[in-house]
Amino acid sequence: MGFDFNWYNCFSLHNFLRPVFDRKVVAVLPDGTQHMRNSLGVTVTLKPGAGSIPGEIDHLLKDRASWEEHYKWQLQWDPKRVEEAKVRIGPNMKVYGSNGCETLRQEERELPLGLHCGSLLGNIRNVVGMENLCYLEADDPKLLTEIINTAADLCFRCAQHVLESGIQFDFGHFWEDICFKSGPLVRPQMFAEMVGPHYRRITNLLREHGVDIVSVDCDGLLIFVMLM
């Protein structure tokens, strides 16, 4: 099922790293290419005039020590993650904790209203890198499970805070981007075991609050999603 972001509103929460890392140039090559640490703590290559996805050079999250020092504390629940999020209503942006919440409560609206429930694995993939994610599953599944559980619990609590406010959403939406046209980037069994329970927990929460339409942007062909 496809959605055109031009004809609906989706409320996005601060349900991942907060605060993010400061962008920092760590090296400049003779041709002008920059090695930059981005907001996720990933060092990437930025070539002059290039418009494609930057190549990844290094990842700050490598093991349990770096997880606990740099990332775990950035994934803890705080009501400000919702209260300070901005609500998009057409071309306008309003802070949820100010008057954005009341705007969302309005029953008469012209566009469907969605709640962006976050990412339970895709954002983690962005932080550790695709190759490292695969190694982490094999080398330290306990750590990977803890990272997924922490990120997923944060997404749940953010969604719970909004849903319990009485706002009626028309659909829930997730972002993952862990598939491509030939199949998934991770083992379906791994996803089912480590991520699946969290999806059930959040989708059950949505249904409890009258939201029975849920979509996932996985970047994969529908046939593979159905097989998973």
Rg, alpha carbons: 19 Å
Low-confidence stretches: none
Helix content bin:
25-40%
Number of strands: 12
Categorize the overall geometry. globular
Please explain how this structure is put together.
This protein has 228 residues and is of the alpha/beta class. The chain folds into 2 domains: 9-18 and 61-227, no CATH class; 22-59, no CATH class. It is built from 8 helices and 12 strands. It has helices at residues 64-71, 80-83, 96-105, 122-128, 130-139, 141-163, 188-208, 222-227; strands at 9-12, 24-28, 34-37, 42-46, 55-59, 86-89, 92-95, 113-116, 171-175, 179-180, 183-184, 214-217. It has a 4-stranded parallel β-sheet, with no helix packed on it. The protein has a 4-stranded antiparallel β-sheet with strand order 2-3-4-5, covered by helices on one side. A hairpin with a 2-residue loop joins strand 6 and strand 7. It is globular and about 55 Å long. The model has no long low-confidence stretch (mean pLDDT 89).
Give a short synopsis of this structure:
This protein is an alpha/beta fold and 228 residues long. It is built from eight helices and twelve strands.
SSE map:
Elements: E1 9-12, E2 24-28, E3 34-37, E4 42-46, E5 55-59, H1 64-71, H2 80-83, E6 86-89, E7 92-95, H3 96-105, E8 113-116, H4 122-128, H5 130-139, H6 141-163, E9 171-175, E10 179-180, E11 183-184, H7 188-208, E12 214-217, H8 222-227
